[in-house]
Write a structure and sequence with these properties.
The chain is α/β, with parallel strands linked by helices. The chain contains 18 helices and 13 strands.
Length: about 375
């Protein structure tokens, strides 16, 4: 069968690659075309467009790049018609993917949505559109199955794909020691900096994160550079810092070695928690985008960790609070307060249990193929 998969971010590329692997196990004749990244391409999909050309963050940024976005949508529709897939598989990325879902439905193509849009955070009325345009929805957060009932949608909860992705990467102590040597890191305890995968995120978050190095000189600070951004971007920020370590496309390896982390809000907050690394969650957007979002987003927390647990497990420093002084205070608690650290680690164990077992990619692949055969 022919599958057309669309992911618009680094996390979607990861989950898409694991899904492709499982689809190929169950369908030996799978022909897969995708919008995604290097990981999906490595698993054998034909890459149409890379997510680095698609990621626009915030209301203002989207408006400024609207012409490019509309051009991409038109190109995608044309490519789908030429490929004639049996299934369109959409991975999150709602602004783009919900338009494609509507188009695919009109063309009589089965629409499968894996990792549903976070409409519970804002624009809940999108649920009615999803019901009209999506044939099968596969959700990864425990509360989403109940949420979609208000739209009379019966969705499949498959568990969170990060469970598998992380368990497959866990290393022994001896492997960690070798990894430390491979990355040329010292014997100091490591603090990871995860400033995000978009240029807009990095420009807001990284300068504040970097300033923490002077406050905690006994630790080694290591920057996780997103593969979607050029080295020159990070080099410019690091020019005033001596001997600052950088790892590229090795975030999971870095987290396994880390004692604490500063993390830009997004999937990385959950990844960090599942690696059992105490963290401070950071978010700072443009003034206009932030104030628009504040008025329309109806959730208590911005990090997936807190949302899933439905309480504050990790500290969130948002907009004005994301400053050098408060970040130093919260990071210091994770480094110096053993009670605070242990409480957070205990909560991470509870989080892992709440997300259920592994096998999300395999379950989703099986359900998609079953649906296409009926």
């Amino acid at each position: 069968m022919k599958y057309y998969i669309i992911a618009g971010e680094a996390s979607g590329d990861l989950h898409g690659s694991n899904l492709i692997k499982e689809l190929k196990k169950k369908d030996q004749d799978a022909n897969i075309r995708c919008w995604g990244g290097d990981l999906m391409q490595t698993e054998g999909a034909t890459l149409v467009k890379h997510y680095r050309d698609l990621a626009f963050m915030g209301f203002v940024e989207v408006l400024l790049n609207l012409k490019t976005i509309l051009k991409n949508i038109a190109f995608c529709k044309k490519d789908i018609l030429e490929f004639k897939p049996d299934s369109i598989i959409l991975i999150d990325y709602p602004g783009f993917n919900m338009r494609i879902a509507e188009f695919a439905k009109q063309q009589g193509i089965r629409v499968h949505y894996y990792i549903s849009p976070q409409i519970w955070a804002w624009k809940q009325n999108r649920g009615f559109k999803l019901k009209r345009t999506v044939d099968k929805m596969f959700v990864i957060l425990p509360f989403e199955k109940e949420f979609y009932k208000k739209f009379d949608m019966e969705v499949d909860y498959v568990g969170h794909p990060l469970i598998d992705a992380i368990e497959n990467r866990l290393k022994s102590d001896s492997e960690k020691a070798e990894l430390r040597r491979e990355l040329n890191l010292s014997d100091k305890k490591i603090i990871a900096l995860l400033p995000g995968s978009r240029l807009q995120e990095v420009s807001k978050m990284l300068p504040i994160m970097l300033k923490q190095a002077k406050h905690f000189p006994e630790y080694e600070f290591v920057l996780a550079a997103a593969p979607s951004l050029d080295d020159a971007i990070f080099a410019d920020y690091l020019k005033d810092y001596q001997n600052f370590s950088v790892v590229r496309n090795r975030t999971y390896d870095l987290l396994q070695l880390s004692y604490a982390a500063m993390v830009t809000s997004g999937t990385a907050t959950l990844e960090t928690a599942l690696f059992k690394v105490p963290e401070v969650v950071c978010y700072k957007g443009s003034f206009i985008s932030y104030h628009i979002a504040k008025r329309i987003i109806n959730i208590k927390y911005i990090s997936l960790v807190n949302l899933i647990m439905d309480r504050e497990v990790v500290k969130e420093l948002i907009q004005g609070e994301m400053n050098e002084k408060l970040l130093r205070l919260e990071l210091g608690k994770l480094l110096k307060d053993s009670e605070k650290r242990n409480e957070m680690l205990d909560n991470f164990n509870l989080l892992n249990n709440k997300l259920g077992g592994g096998g999300a990619s395999a379950k989703t692949a099986e359900l998609i193929i079953e649906d296409l055969k009926t």
